[in-house]
Each structure stands twice: as structure tokens, then as C-alpha cells.
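Researcher: Sequence recovery benchmark, item below. Answer with residues only.
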């Protein structure tokens, strides 16, 4: 068979990134003429199928055929798995946002746990530890506090739109990128991830700029004005931030947008314009202008209040963040006498959350605005036992520790980006010789790799507990505890 051909498959497993797994005989797809019939019959082959769950029988189109596996996409469901449910959103299936809205929530949780165990077994060769049940998300919808939408000069049309006689403007879109198609965006009219007002803001923003014929920034020609729309909402207060990312300044247009937006959606408490002059398509500006309100929102995790500015990292599911940090705090098992290092500390949220239970905390982070927010957050919460330190944890940070003559840590809490830790940083932590390491991660694959490194250097993986921060997606947050042997 070749790429593009279709094949009927029975799905029996669940794999990385939420794909279904079908186990077949290799000769069905890639027969080897050099083998005898008997040898061929023994050849097992795996097909990873996007859009399919265990229990499904699907017709799948082959996308990639390799020596030991193939990748395919389900194009027709012949028999539905009992794990399936009706998706809520009209954009489901086209939008890449919540790919698992059609999988029952208890099964989402089950598969996430299985994934963590499998990844630790296959990548880290780790099987001996206590596994605590995943903590489900309190909310299944409207759980995100931050949403990032993109403008595009190429609008993705749905099959229904293509089928109508209506003349449709394809040259302007505001919504989400279509998976794997980097330049096309689906106009999002409804979304159940943040709040109803979010959809109102998105629809208003699209209508406003379309009516003004404002050009969208093109990643091909690097011309145009509109780049991203970022919306942040507070869970515990009524704060609501609208941040428009543009390629340059236009005070007249932006002021008119702000005025009309506030007229239409008075719940908005702050409006910001980030200006990104770089070619890279990121929703973070080189600088920002505050057009209305304080330029930040405030929210709470546990009893602590946090200031969140447009570009600083904040856990996207506020209610679950409390459970995540609570799990990390429980694993750290602090008595009040410990020196704690918080690596990749962002806006200081973990440091502040655990501060009551430690003697002193040193927090390390390399984003200046996050460090500034962290200082502000500690002050706001009257926390005096945390010191925030600028350090690039891609390089060794021991020189910073030595220069500042910091005491060695009893406990190290680590919460790196998806790419995980640099091996220099793993080495540094080992050299600092903490009794306990609590590793929080949004990517169990890199976490398993790093944990295996700690295990090879004299640490034991004691226990793990995932926390579901991202319902309807295959993304997993996991907390691991290591102890010095
Ligand atoms: C997953 S976030 C965790 C932030 C924080 N612990 C929290 O819970 O909100 C990862 C953090 O690592 C920081 N980071 C990424 N690369 C870094 C580096 N090379 N050195 C220091 N910090 C880095 C990011 O700026 C971000 O704040």
C-alpha cells in the first residue's frame, strides 16, 4: 500500500498524543517479497491512527509508512467505541483545540494515567514507584484563564462552506490554526474553553477590523498589521484582559478599537497592545502599550493573590493549579526548617504557595518580566522568605549559587517548560545534593528522560501523581517525587 490509500482497522490501544493503535500483520501494508509466507505471517506491525479510540473500527487513510510502523487518520467510523460521547462544540473535528471532546471524561483520565506509566517505562525504564490516581479537573469546560487566537490572511473553509453558493471572504480569519497547516486559520465563533464573553470579544474583534479593512500580518510577506488576540480572565475576580498583538503601532486605530470594545463589552478591565516586530509568529511583543486599565489582571491560587501581566507565565487552569501545587507541596513534605530551591519559578507562584512551610526559598527564572511579577507577588502577599534570582537554567547555575553564597537546598522543586531540563541543570541539582526533588511537568516524555538521569545519579523515584489541567486534550501534567538513596 502507499500513502493516501485506505485500510480498515480495529483499534486496540491508545498511544502518545491520543492516537489509537491498531496491530496488524505487516504484509497487509508493506509485504516483504524476500520472506516466506510463514515468516510474513509472524511480522507484526503497528498503525497509529489519529481520531480513533480503543474499541473503534475505522477506515483510515495512510499518511506515513515506515519500516516498523505507519501513521494514519480515521476518515470513517465503521463501529463506534463505547468510550465515545457527543462533542459539544460546533468546531469539533476541524479545530485542533480540544481533540478529545468525543471521548468520555473518565476514559480521558484513564488513558492519561496509562500514558504516564507507559512513558516512564519506555523512556526511563522506570516501573518501581507508587502511582497515585490522577486528580480530575473540577471543571470540564470554561477552565482556561488564557486563550490565544491568531489572525491569518488565509481562512480555512469547512466542507459545508465550500458546498454553499454564498460568496465567502477567505482573506481574513481570527481563530485557531488548523493542525499541521501552519498558514490557515479557522474562524472561531464559539469556544467552551474560557468563557462566553471570550467568544463575544473574538467575534467583535474580527468584525471591527474587517469593517476597517485592516491588513492581517502575513508570515510569508511580513507585511500587514494584525497578528494575535490574547484574552486572560481571572477566576477569583472579575478582571478581564484583552491584548492585541500587532506588527507596529497605530494609535488612532487602536484607540478606536479600545473605545468600541469597551462600549460593546464593558466587562473588559484592561486593554493592551503588544508590538511584535519580529518575523517569528509569537504572541509576545518586543514592548507593550497599556491602552486601558492597569495592564494586568489579578487572580488567586489557594489563599495567595497574584498579579499577571500580558506576557508572564501563569498556570492556565487556575482551579487545578491549586491542586497541582498542593500535590507538589505534599510531596515536598516540608517541616518549616528547609531551604528550598524553586527552579523555573515563573511569576513565583510555587515559591509563594509553599513559603509558609519552608525556612527560605530561592527561586530561579530567566524571564525578566516574570521575575518582576514574582517580586510584586511576594510583596502583595507579605512573603519575606523568598528570594527571586535571575538565572538561565540552560547553562549551569552553580556560579550564581556560589557568587551569592546561597545555602545548599534540602528540597528542590522543578517545573520546566515542555522541553524539560538541560542536562547541565540536572548535573547541577545532583551536585547540590538535595534530600528530595519534586518534579512538576507538563510533558511526561521529557520528565521521564530527566527523572531517569536523576535515578542514574543516586536518586530513587518514590511516587507520582498526574493532575488533569487540560480536559478534552491529550496533554498531561504530572508530579514526581525523588529521594536521595
Ligand atoms: C512551566 S513554566 C513554570 C512556571 C511556574 N513554576 C508556575 O507554576 O507558574 C516554566 C518556566 O520556566 C521558565 N524558563 C524557561 N526556560 C528557562 C531557562 N533557560 N532558564 C530559566 N527559566 C526558564 C519560563 O520562563 C517559565 O516561567
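Model:
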Amino acid at each position: 500500500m502507499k500513502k493516501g490509500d485506505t485500510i480498515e482497522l480495529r483499534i486496540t490501544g491508545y498511544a502518545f498524543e491520543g492516537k489509537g493503535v491498531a496491530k496488524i500483520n505487516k504484509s497487509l501494508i508493506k509485504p516483504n517479497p524476500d520472506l516466506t509466507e510463514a515468516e510474513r505471517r509472524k511480522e507484526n506491525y503497528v498503525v497509529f491512527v489519529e481520531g480513533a479510540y480503543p474499541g473503534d473500527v475505522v477506515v483510515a487513510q495512510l499518511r506515513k509508512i515506515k519500516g516498523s510502523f505507519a501513521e494514519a487518520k480515521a476518515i470513517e467510523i465503521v463501529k463506534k467505541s463505547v468510550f465515545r460521547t457527543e462533542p459539544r462544540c460546533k468546531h469539533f473535528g476541524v479545530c485542533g483545540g480540544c481533540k478529545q471532546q468525543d471521548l468520555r471524561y473518565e476514559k480521558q483520565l484513564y488513558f492519561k494515567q496509562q500514558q504516564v506509566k507507559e512513558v516512564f517505562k519506555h523512556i526511563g525504564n522506570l516501573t518501581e514507584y507508587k502511582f497515585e490516581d490522577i486528580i480530575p479537573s473540577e471543571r470540564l469546560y470554561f477552565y482556561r484563564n488564557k486563550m490565544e487566537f491568531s489572525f491569518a490572511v488565509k481562512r480555512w473553509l469547512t466542507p459545508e462552506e465550500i458546498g454553499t453558493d454564498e460568496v465567502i471572504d477567505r482573506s481574513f480569519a481570527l481563530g485557531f490554526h488548523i493542525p499541521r497547516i501552519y498558514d490557515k486559520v479557522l474562524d472561531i465563533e464559539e469556544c467552551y474553553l474560557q468563557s462566553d464573553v471570550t467568544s463575544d470579544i473574538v467575534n467583535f474583534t474580527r468584525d471591527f477590523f474587517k469593517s476597517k479593512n485592516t491588513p492581517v500580518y502575513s508570515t510569508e510577506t511580513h507585511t500587514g498589521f494584525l497578528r494575535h488576540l490574547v484574552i486572560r480572565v481571572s477566576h477569583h475576580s472579575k478582571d478581564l484582559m484583552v491584548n492585541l498583538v500587532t506588527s507596529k503601532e497605530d494609535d488612532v486605530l487602536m484607540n478606536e478599537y479600545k473605545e468600541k470594545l469597551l462600549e460593546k463589552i464593558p466587562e473588559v478591565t484592561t486593554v493592551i497592545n503588544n508590538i511584535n516586530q519580529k518575523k517569528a509568529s509569537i504572541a509576545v511583543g518586543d514592548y507593550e502599550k497599556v491602552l486601558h486599565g492597569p495592564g494586568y489582571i489579578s487572580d488567586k491560587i489557594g489563599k495567595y493573590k497574584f498579579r499577571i501581566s500580558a506576557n508572564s507565565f501563569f498556570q492556565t487552569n487556575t482551579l487545578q493549579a491549586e491542586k497541582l501545587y498542593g500535590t507538589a507541596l505534599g510531596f515536598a513534605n516540608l517541616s518549616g526548617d528547609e531551604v528550598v530551591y524553586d527552579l523555573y519559578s515563573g511569576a513565583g507562584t510555587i515559591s509563594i504557595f509553599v513559603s509558609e512551610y519552608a525556612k527560605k526559598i530561592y527561586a530561579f527564572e530567566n524571564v525578566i518580566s516574570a521575575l518582576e511579577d514574582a517580586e510584586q507577588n511576594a510583596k502583595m502577599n507579605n512573603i519575606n522568605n523568598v528570594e527571586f534570582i535571575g538565572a538561565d537554567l540552560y547553562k549551569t547555575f552553580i556560579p550564581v549559587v556560589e557568587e551569592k553564597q546561597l545555602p545548599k537546598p534540602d528540597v528542590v522543586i522543578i517545573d520546566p517548560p515542555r522541553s524539560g531540563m538541560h542536562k547541565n541543570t540536572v548535573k547541577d541539582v545532583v551536585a547540590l545534593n538535595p534530600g528530595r526533588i519534586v518534579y512538576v511537568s507538563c510533558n511526561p516524555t521529557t520528565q521521564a528522560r530527566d527523572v531517569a538521569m536523576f535515578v542514574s545519579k543516586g536518586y530513587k523515584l518514590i511516587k507520582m501523581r498526574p493532575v488533569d489541567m487540560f480536559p478534552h486534550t491529550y496533554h498531561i501534567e504530572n508530579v514526581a517525587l525523588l529521594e536521595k538513596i
